[in-house]
Amino acid sequence: MDSQSNEMLVKLKVFLVYVKIFVTSSENGTEIVIPLYVTYDEDLQQGFQLTESEYEQRKSSFSPLRTSTIKYDVIVFAHNGTVSYGYRIRSISGSKPKPIAAKITVSSLVSSTTRFGSYSQWGSGDFNLSAINFVPGTGQVKQDNMYNTYYWKFRINSSTTWDSGMVTADEETSDAFLYNKKGVLYPKYSDPQSGIALIEPRADMVPNPRTPSSTYRTNFMKHYNTSFGNPTYFIWDDVQVHHMIPVRFNGSDAISNLIPLWKPGVQPQNGILSHSVLNSWWANYY
Fold first, then answer.
1. What superkingdom heads the lineage (predicted)?
2. Positive/negative CA dihedral, 198, 199, 204, 209
3. Helices (H), 92-250
4. Residue 118: which of 150, 82, 88, 95 has the closest Cα?
């Protein structure tokens, strides 16, 4: 290969750096959208993998007639016991260089213990694009079954070949998400007055039911009123004192395992979570 060919085949290793991850979750499932920008500047002979804000900050430095950008959304959708992952092309800008091929791999990793546990690969989707596939609004998707409650992470690799060279992007892995076996995300919640935060459970608990004491609610109410003042966001008659690790899984009556939530049938308000939301999530835990 001559020196000119060497200069034309540029391999630049960059990280899939992103800040914004858009998460939409309900009792029916969870969608995660990760925006990715792949840019190649022919004058600089450099490629970049950028967040949306980074792209806006840097685009003025790119050669306007010799820079192209592909905007992707990597999408993960968990629903009814399945998880789908893939990509959608949002837009392509710039006249040259032109993308002629790309490969995007979205892999799912799971931990059966905690978010800080050991992760193993569950599945992956390898998506190969040729020149005719670079069409805004199009994409590809792969689906796997979920089966159990796990902590999930998603790893993304992408490489793009341009008609004047190649950009290779290194892998990046998302934060952990706790899904039950139906694909519903475990809520992140803190009581607005006390700041008591919902405990994240392990993902490998098995039923070991016990009977709670008859005094746990009264004990918690006394603790709450003494430590945080009389409640201003609710009245005690309208809330359930919830065991964050349920008694079905041998959750204790300790103050540290309790949090006030709206009783089923009470209209949620004031930023307080409904007990029904957690009941529904735990119904599909095991």
1. Bacteria
2. negative
3. 216-228
4. 150
Q: Cβ distance 87 to 107 under 8 Å? A: no
Tracing tokens 């009792």 back to the chain, one arrives at 27
Q: What is the pLDDT of residue 132?
A: 94
Which of 224, 232, 238, 237 has its CA nearest to residue 270? Answer: 232
Q: Residues 146, 76, 136, 165: is their CA dihedral positive or negative?
A: negative
Q: What angle do CA 94, 137, 77 make, to 5 degrees?
A: 125
DSSP alpha helices (H): ranges in the chain? 3-8, 52-58, 216-228, 275-283
Q: Give the separation between CA 239 and CA 274, rounded to whole angstroms.
A: 9
> Which of the pair, 167 or 202, is modelled with greater confidence?
202
Task: Say how far apart CA 193 and CA 67 lie, in whole Å.
Answer: 51
